[in-house]
Amino acid sequence: MVKDNTGNGEKMNIADGTAYAATQDVVGDNTNNGGDKSMVKDNTNNGGLVVTSEENIFRETEKKTILSVENLTVCFPGKRNIFGKAISVVPIVKNVSFEVKENETVGLVGESGCGKTTLGRAILQLIKPSSGKIVLEGTDLTTLNSGQLRVIRKDLQIVFQDPYGSLNPRITIGDAIMEPLNVHRIHSSKKQRKEQVVELLEKVSLQGDHFNRYPHQFSGGQRQRICIARALALQPDFLIFDESVSALDVSVQAQVLNLINDLKAEMNFSSIFISHDLSVVHYISDRVLVMNKGRIVEEGTADDIYFNPSNAYTQQLVQAIPGKGLF
Ligand SMILES: Nc1ncnc2c1ncn2[C@@H]1O[C@H](COP(=O)(O)OP(=O)(O)OP(=O)(O)O)[C@@H](O)[C@H]1O
Ligand SMILES: [Mg+2]
Q1: Which of 57, 221, 288, 321 has its CA 20 to 30 A from that of 183?
Q2: Rounded Cα distance, 168 and 151, in Å
Q3: Residue nearest to atom 20 of ligand 1 (CA)
Q4: What is the DSSP string of 180-209?
Q5: Which residue's CA is the closest to the ligand 1 atom numbered 30?
């Protein structure tokens, strides 16, 4: 059995407890084939047929590039003088380049403090990079002023780790999801906006009548679904998930990962999925970037990185996975 990221083929059903058996099959497929790397995960819209890596690479290169990060360096202020003025800078993200294609999920993995969130925030222009380009669908975001950025942020959303901290406890979840629709003046009437929120709630497997509830009335997994619904409200072309399932227990993690995969197939967005957990990144991603001390040290298909890492640092990450094979 191969993993299907398209939402149209065979999918793992985590909720009913068969997930782990199914994932063991995935591992079996990739380990018991005599090292034949032509057995790869199916990321294509072919209903679950296995394709060779050559065909896959060809199809991937055919796809449109949505995001291109070129020689990106991000520095933070270092030592300060007695007046509090920074007298040095510390590079955190160092000369990073990669691309994300249409409808592709690129995993970004690395140990705590290596610069993953900093890279994500720099892509969103929440931190100004020191040098390099971030080209989203042909526009270099580093050249835009704040007004132009506000418009383009509609296409670029982020889902954070802590779903409770991301939601205002005094605002109903319906109003929280509706907020981006109000800000960007989507639809002419409030009634239409409300209808869209109900639709979004149902998309993330919640109910329309949850609209008037407050964040504390939901579980952690449900709150993360609410954050995903809010991020999807403006139908972005690009999403960054920053440790979006790290605070959830493992079965809820799997449900949210499957939800993200289903929504990706339905809404056709591209994404970067940031995590320190290589198993999670392997499960959700088409391609994986491995980051160490601010640099990308290895890049490859999710299966190659997980089953056949070539860089010593990636090998250490793989060896450190407890009970490898759960995802
Ligand atoms: N605003 C800031 N000012 C100065 N240094 C910062 C700032 N934000 C982050 N750093 C430093 O940059 C480094 C990378 O932090 P970052 O949050 O990007 O790591 P990370 O890979 O996301 O880690 P984690 O997996 O724990 O989330 C850390 O050493 C951190 O202390
Ligand atoms: Mg982080």
Answers
A1: 221
A2: 24
A3: 113
A4: HHHHTT-SSSHHHHHHHHHHHHHHTT--GG
A5: 113
